[in-house]
Fold this sequence. Notes:
By secondary structure, chain A is mainly α. Helices cover 73% and strands 0% of the residues of chain A. The relative contact order of chain A is 0.15. The longest helix of chain B has 22 residues, at 244-265. Chain B is globular.
Amino acid sequence: MTQADVLSPVRPKKTSPGTRRNRRSATLVVGCVLAGLVALLALVSLFWLPYPTDDTSGGRLAGPGGGHLLGTDKLGRDLFTQVMTGSRIAVEAGLGSVLIAATIGVTLGVLAAFAQGWLDDTVSAFLDILIAFPTLLLAMLIVAARSATLGSAVLAIGLAQSAVVARLVRILAKRVLAHDYITAARTSGTSWSRTVAGHVLPNIWPTLVVNLALQFGLAVLAEAGLSYLGLGAPPPNASWGRMLQEAQATFTTAPVGALAPGILLVLLVIGVNLIADGLRDTLDPATRRRRA
Amino acid sequence: MTLLDVRGLTVRTTDGRTLVDDLSFSVASGERLGLIGESGSGKSLTTLAVLGLLPDGMSATGSIELAGTQIVGAPEKRLTAVRGRDAAVVFQEPLTALDPLMRVGRQIAEPLRVRTGLKGDDLERAVAHALEQVRLPEPERIARAFPHEISGGQRQRVALAMALACDPKLLIADEPTTALDVSVQAEMLELIDTLVREREMAVLFVSHDLAVVAKVTDRALVMKDGRAVEEGAVHTIVGAPREEYTRTLVASARRLESALDLRSAR
């Protein structure tokens, strides 16, 4: 060790106990495997499907095996094909909704955080009303105005979630803005946009990412719910929600039709939640500083 | 030449409480003025008002003229131009005065970039130079560190470097040594004293500690409950206080001092 190292003004980073770090990364790994499984199905479905989506050549309600990995539904369509398209739609719905929620939510939240007095009150009241407004009703309104497509469902879910994200961002940003370092930045002439990009966003990022991961899981569930009610993607694009609804009547004789989309839905949502949990442990500045 | 001229400054909350009451003082260029008072006497609010940074729900009336610019009621745009160029501030708590997620170097680079327009390697060199000036060892290394990776005294030096990076005409120091160890306090005061003298910078030094104010400033203003109680040369205030409150303040400081002397003598 050189003398410079001994006199180092920077304290060396302490390492955390191995077990805690392992448990932390295990959560993340399991989550990635579960969600990755569905993501892989979705990705493959873009290039290859066992059967065309409108192929009804199989026998009705055939059991697994015999050219159909999971059997067929009551119209003779291959279930595995439907499950694969369903994965794609679920991932698309999750990503699309989160993208809309993040874009609108972060913009509105940051603006609300900077706003003062009556403007802040107005924006907050508006957000609260939007949160109280049922997503289902919003979805029905949008479907009535447009048509029952995946886009409509994603728009409805994204808009509903953007209010939740905006409220979170507002409160997080307000907390950051109250710090002395913001005052210090302002006194040194840092512009509004640079304050947001340099100080506010990096400081709310860890919490925001975790929340967005959770919102992804919720969006997948919401899309399944909407398409169960016929407000999602229209046939022949099988969505998990509609598969569940169609298999409901024949559940006792052909349970695979309901089990397959149901299990994948649960796997994806659990996987995404585990990822969010793992991300929180690694990203959260509070836990990170405790480790450092 | 008068750099800062405060006339009849009154700060009120929206629910009608008066926190600073008809306060008047002025600071000439290169002059060092101390604001003394117990907590809650309105000294910190006064400094925030000077920069147009009063928190939500408080409003200032009266007149604050900083280098010829009226601060009270000025739009944000004019305030941004004044801040940094005419006045910069060092806060009491160095940990909250630095962004925990931004490397120290980048935080100093920002005001430097705004003022000088430097970029890339030149900016990096300027940052290292700024850190050197506040007597930080291994400036390159500190510049790459996060605030939690350096000590409290080093953090306060970084905060001072940030304020000086703007090369302001007036340095506002709001209890800059209160959060530090006694041994580090003395060094810090010495450093502020030297740097400010070198630059012929005016200082508005806020503290509850008479001894600290006496060390750095020439003139002092004693505040109580938002009002100015007494104003004058520091040694007159310490040596021959006129007002009852100042006398109590000086006496209690003496008592504390003698208690400390007693302890160290043992």
